[in-house]
Amino acid sequence: MEEGRLVKWAKREGEAVKTGDTLAEVETDKAVMELVARADGQLIKVMVAEGTTVPVGNVVAYIGQPGEKVDGAEPAPAAQKGAQSAVSGAREPTPPPTPAPVAVPAPFDATRVKASPLAKRMAQDTGVDLKLVQGSGPGGRVVKRDLEGVQAVAPAAASVVPRTADRAPRTGAPYEDVPLTQIRKTIAKRLAASIGPIPHFFLTTEVDMERAAEARDALNKQLGDQGKVSFNDIVIKAVALALTKHRACNAWFQEDHIRYWNEVHIGMAVAVEDGLITPVIRDADRKSLLEIGTEARELAQRARNRRLKPEEYTGASFSVSNLGMFDIDQFTAVINPPEAGIIAVGSIVAKPVAEGSQVVVRRRLRLTMSCDHRVIDGATGAQFLKTLKQMLENPLAMLL
Amino acid sequence: MPTLTYRDALNQALREEMQRDASVFLMGEEVGVYQGAYKVSRGLLEEFGAQRVVDTPIAELGFAGIGVGAAMAGLRPVIEFMTWNFALLALDQIVNAAAKMLYMSGGQLRMPIVFRGPNGAALQLSSQHSQAWESWLAHIPGLKVVAPATPADAKGLLKSAIRDNNPVIVLEGEMLYNLKGEVPEGEHIVPIGKADVKREGTDVTLICHSKTVSVALKAADQLAEQNVSAEVVDLRSLRPLDETAIVESVVKTNRAVVVEEGWPHAGIGAQVVDIIQREAFDHLDAPVQRVTQADVPMPYNKHLERAAKASPEKVAAAARRVLYLE
User: Fold this and answer.
1) Catalytic residues of A
2) Cβ A117–B324 below 8 Å, yes or no?
3) Residue B201's pLDDT is what?
4) Interface check B281 vs A, CB under 8 A
5) Which of A121, A133, A143 to mutate to test the interface with B (most CBs of B within 10 A)?
């Protein structure tokens, strides 16, 4: 995030404010966020008019004591992008103001990492990238405890053949970074050079949804007013569980290494007015259908209202895109990098199929997986899809 | 090992050094007939006579100056101040005469003198008599400053101070005179400039001296109940400071809280924090915290006085802050 548009002031000049009060709504490239007060006092001067776009770090208002003067608090001329500057530039220069300036928050600035000196040294010693570590100290400072247990880059001797098809170990570490082997580097380079930056390939399978539909009907009957399970919830749950058995598909391509996730965070593509966004259902493999359903609907609603926080639409390990509601039988989805795969879900269609020598009508669903060939090979993706198909055709297999 | 009070440990050090070296003598208000306002000089007049245990008028600048002259002439005076609050009147002799004599005489005049007395707040003695002077004294090049926290360290450091050929300030804790502890008999010397780990720990270092050692030890007990292992480092000597001990402990724990009885501004803790940020920067996981007396003259009211002083609760809270636990 480099700049934000000040959508609306929630407080007016002269109003009293307390730490934590919402001062304004700020629109970033992804979401509308609240700008909160970090000091008590009175909003004595608003520096930016509604609708104006300002760079991150720019002073947008002053909080101070009633009657306090903030002459000289002119907005920097470069700060004005919109034409609606509220303040003319005709004042005489005076000494800098004493009240605490309120800056636009920069929650998504990945270029500056706050870390304790010790954490920086530990990261350097172990090869951990501090940008990828969630800091638990004040202001997101990365401290010692955030790095304890984080897997460093594996030593070269151990990197001959990564055992990627294993079930993800639940060791407490959120992921494991495996360096690229030479052959993997060559595959990555050659395939990337052949089609675009991400060498996609696609795998389609058709799934019989009769038993999933029966299970869904039975569950919804039992739930009554307590909620509804949708086919989308079932697909997300099945994808998440299948990923736990095929870690090779639950991965990020990271230029010089592949990050195999031990956790499953499913990005769920949601169409919004001017584009699309993928809110993330975290640890979807460990959530119940009802939890997934409730969370998916809540996230989708807030996505449409552009009320998602940055941490709610980043960090997915794999994604699902569903156009079934638009009567699309089958489509291919574009991978959301650095993820290595995405499943495109079509609509459930009743159609004649051969069962033995009989022609019967069955409800069928077509799933298409887009794979990043730098990470996932054809057979690897096919094995994952097979597990997913088995889980959907026989929902009890999810318990295996 | 015999158990002695802090005051008797000091008494033992004085007696042993006066027996050992005839040039050692004690001078101050009420040190002779009355045996000391805090009874540190009990029995000394009887044993050594009025020439070596000298009662003075209430004139701190005067008898401090007599002590400086005696040291220049080759004796080893021990000057007792009834409290360091009264020693303010003698600062010209301490700072301008004693501390600078070796330097300004081009190395010709040694200054083997000890200035000692109680320091820090006691209970309800109000603003003028409840002060901790260590940062004033440790500021001066030419002085050595020690502040023992236990009877054993009191004996060992006073003996070192008396044998030192430079002026040494011995800050005795006014609230520590009744503190009991094991004290080695006879030749027990604690070198000036060596800190002491009073309790080993792994998670946070509590750096303290004099009375705040017991404050930090109580805080460490409270922290242990929350599964925090605190290391208590007793500086003992404030000039010179044992930088090695401070840095070694912080390198081990990655976090520090500095505790002192004095005020925050330009206090001893500020000097300790300076050492830590310079010598242990890459080992710090959190900014160093300080616990001091509140930045006000000591209130007389007993509740306000308690609120103004460093306490185990304040130290434990600061430790939790550097551990990011609150």
Assistant:
1) 373, 377
2) no
3) 97
4) yes
5) A143
Residue A146: closest CA among chain B residues belongs to which residue? B285
Q: Assess: ipTM above 0.85.
A: no
Contact yes or no for B181/B196 (Cβ under 8 A): no
- A146 contacts in chain B (CB < 8 Å): none
| All domains of chain A in start order, with CATH | 3-103 (2.40.50.100), 110-150 (4.10.320.10), 185-399 (3.30.559.10)
Tens of pLDDT along chain B (326 residues)?
999 999 999 999 999 999 999 999 999 999 999 999 999 999 999 999 999 999 999 999 999 999 999 999 999 999 999 999 999 999 999 999 999 999 999 999 999 999 999 999 999 999 999 999 999 999 999 999 999 999 999 999 999 999 999 999 999 999 999 999 999 999 999 999 999 999 999 999 999 999 999 999 999 999 999 999 999 999 999 999 999 999 999 999 999 999 999 999 999 999 999 999 999 999 999 999 999 999 999 999 999 999 999 999 999 999 999 999 97
Residues A366 and A205 sit within 8 Å (Cβ to Cβ): yes
- Asked if B254 is an interface residue toward chain A (Cβ–Cβ < 8 A), one would say yes
Q: Is the pTM of this model over 0.80?
A: no
Q: A269: which 2 tokens?
A: 């593509």
CB A298 within 8 A of CB A235: no
Q: Do A116 and B324 touch (CB under 8 A)?
A: no
Specify the DSSP element, H or E, that contains A17. Answer: strand A16-17
Q: Given B30, B129, B139, B279, which residue is catalytic?
A: B129
Residue A116 at interface with chain B, using a CB cutoff of 8 Å: yes
Contact assessment for residue A390 and residue A397, using Cβ atoms and an 8 Å cutoff: yes
Q: Helix, strand or coil for residue A36?
A: strand
CA separation for the pair A229, B192 (Å, rounded): 76
Active site residue B60: yes
Give CA–CA dist A210/A139, Å, rounded. Answer: 51
What six digits make up the tokens of A60? 């947008």
Structural domains of chain B, ranges and CATH numbers in brackets: 3-182 (3.40.50.970), 196-322 (3.40.50.920)
CB pairs under 8 A between A and B: 27
